[in-house]
């Protein structure tokens, strides 16, 4: 998108504001499908947690994607967006058996990641096929908070507990129709991914009624112009060859599945914020914006770097700025970053703001969450209104907690 278009969106819908380019999402989806075009059955299940606006989900539906969900609320969003239940896979962690049963009753595919729930569910619902999430004990990912396949992770059933799984399956006579893993996010080294995949192939041999194998996601996307990313084409070629070989050995054509979130929507998103104050201290020049980690927490939570451009003065002389928010705690988006000269009132564009940005926003400091806009077919469409004060009070219930005044008569006798 051009700077002039971004500026017009900020003018029309205010700032801060999130903007998503549907064309980029479409390109990323097609790129991933193309990487696995040598596999007969491929299914891309978009990870709803990355960006859950219903308009984004409807776009994914038109592309042919399924959904990867982690809560019953995400399941209901998918159904509301028009997805058939069978195209939604539900992969929770630590939820109640009751929630899993409710989702199963809706007709969605179930993915279970612990022995206790597997046994309980299999005992009560042996005729409902389930997928099993395996923990391959592989350390992968760009940050400890997003590495979920290592030995100390709360996610998945350990590969060393396969005998326990088989005992439960035999005792309950349940059907395992899928096998799944997810090792982490921002994985750059495809050899690590391929190594974990071999563990999944070996595990799959224990189950004779599989329909699909889900290899998760976590592909690294570039966050700046000279950044590196997962070579998805090379990865697709290597894993496709290995997957096709496995299917021949297994004696059945299985579906290869992935659950990308960031890969599909990260680069499609931009976050615009206005500079309220340019503050010079004895050592630093701060650009203080009309936002904070209540709107974009990734730099503070994950140490992620988002490219920041001054779209009001893109050709200005570059200077060094520390970009911070208006929250009552430290909320630094960038330290000592080279940005075209910033003046108060300028608009800054944060790149790669499509994944885990708005979806992790909050009302901290009682601030409003921003609007969301989709750039689709050359036009800006408002897909979420900016919150107002009524939204802050909604669902709050006031009670009468003022102290009762004592009567004058009672005060006289005190």
TrEMBL record:
UniProt-annotated binding residues for substrate: 298, 302, 329, 356
Any one biological process term the GO annotation gives: lysine biosynthetic process via diaminopimelate
Q: Name one GO molecular function term.
A: diaminopimelate decarboxylase activity
Q: Which EC class heads this enzyme's classification?
A: lyase
- Which cofactors does it use? pyridoxal 5'-phosphate
Which reaction(s) does its UniProt entry say it catalyses?
meso-2,6-diaminopimelate + H(+) = L-lysine + CO2
Please give one Pfam family short name: Orn_DAP_Arg_deC
User: Record-annotated residues binding pyridoxal 5'-phosphate?
Assistant: 218, 356
**Pathway given in the UniProt record:** Amino-acid biosynthesis; L-lysine biosynthesis via DAP pathway; L-lysine from DL-2,6-diaminopimelate: step 1/1
Active site (record annotation): 328
- Where does the record place the Orn/DAP/Arg decarboxylase 2 C-terminal domain? 21-354
Q: Which residues form the Orn/DAP/Arg decarboxylase 2 N-terminal domain?
A: 27-266
- Please provide the record's keywords in A-Z order: Amino-acid biosynthesis, Decarboxylase, Lyase, Lysine biosynthesis, Pyridoxal phosphate
Q: What is its EC number?
A: 4.1.1.20
Modification N6-(pyridoxal phosphate)lysine, positions: 49
Protein origin, superkingdom: Bacteria
Q: How does it assemble?
A: Homodimer.
In which family does this protein belong, per the annotation? Belongs to the Orn/Lys/Arg decarboxylase class-II family. LysA subfamily.
Q: Which function does this protein serve? A: Specifically catalyzes the decarboxylation of meso-diaminopimelate (meso-DAP) to L-lysine.
Name of this protein: Diaminopimelate decarboxylase
């Amino acid at each position: 998108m051009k700077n002039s278009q971004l500026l017009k969106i900020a003018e029309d819908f205010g700032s801060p504001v999130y903007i998503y380019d549907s064309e980029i999402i479409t390109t990323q989806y097609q790129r991933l499908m193309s990487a696995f075009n040598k596999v007969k059955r491929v299914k891309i299940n978009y990870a709803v947690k990355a960006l859950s606006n219903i308009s984004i989900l409807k776009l994914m539906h038109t592309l042919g994607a399924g959904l990867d969900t982690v809560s019953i609320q995400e399941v209901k969003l998918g159904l509301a967006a028009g997805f058939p239940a069978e195209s939604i896979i539900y992969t929770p962690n630590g939820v109640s058996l009751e929630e899993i049963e409710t989702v199963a009753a809706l007709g969605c595919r179930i993915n279970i990641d612990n022995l206790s729930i597997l046994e309980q569910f299999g005992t009560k619902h042996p005729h409902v096929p389930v997928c099993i999430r395996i923990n391959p004990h592989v350390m992968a990912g760009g940050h400890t908070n997003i590495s979920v396949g290592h030995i100390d992770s709360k996610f998945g059933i350990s590969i060393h507990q396969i005998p326990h799984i088989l005992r439960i399956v035999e005792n309950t006579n349940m059907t395992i129709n899928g096998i799944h893993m997810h090792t982490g996010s921002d994985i750059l080294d495809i050899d690590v991914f391929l190594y974990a995949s071999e563990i999944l192939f070996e595990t799959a041999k224990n189950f004779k009624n599989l329909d699909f194998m889900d290899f998760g996601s976590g592909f690294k996307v570039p966050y700046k112009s000279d950044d590196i990313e997962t070579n998805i084409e090379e990865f697709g070629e290597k894993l496709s060859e290995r997957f096709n070989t496995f299917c021949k050995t297994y004696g059945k054509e299985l579906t290869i599945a992935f659950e990308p979130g960031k890969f599909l929507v990260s680069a499609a998103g931009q976050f615009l914020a206005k500079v309220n104050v340019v503050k010079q201290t004895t050592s630093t020049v701060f650009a203080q914006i009309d936002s904070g980690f209540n709107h974009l927490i990734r730099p503070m939570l994950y140490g992620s770097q988002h490219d920041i451009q001054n779209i009001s003065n893109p050709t200005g002389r570059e200077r060094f700025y520390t970009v911070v928010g208006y929250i009552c705690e430290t909320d630094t988006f960038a330290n000592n970053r080279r940005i075209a000269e910033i003046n108060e009132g300028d608009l800054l564009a944060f790149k790669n703001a499509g994944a885990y940005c708005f979806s992790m926003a909050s009302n901290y400091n009682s601030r409003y969450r921003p609007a969301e806009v989709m750039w689709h077919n050359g036009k800006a469409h408002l897909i979420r209104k900016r919150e107002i004060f009524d939204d802050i009070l909604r669902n709050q219930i006031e009670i009468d907690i003022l102290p009762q005044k004592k009567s004058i008569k009672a005060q006289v006798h005190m």
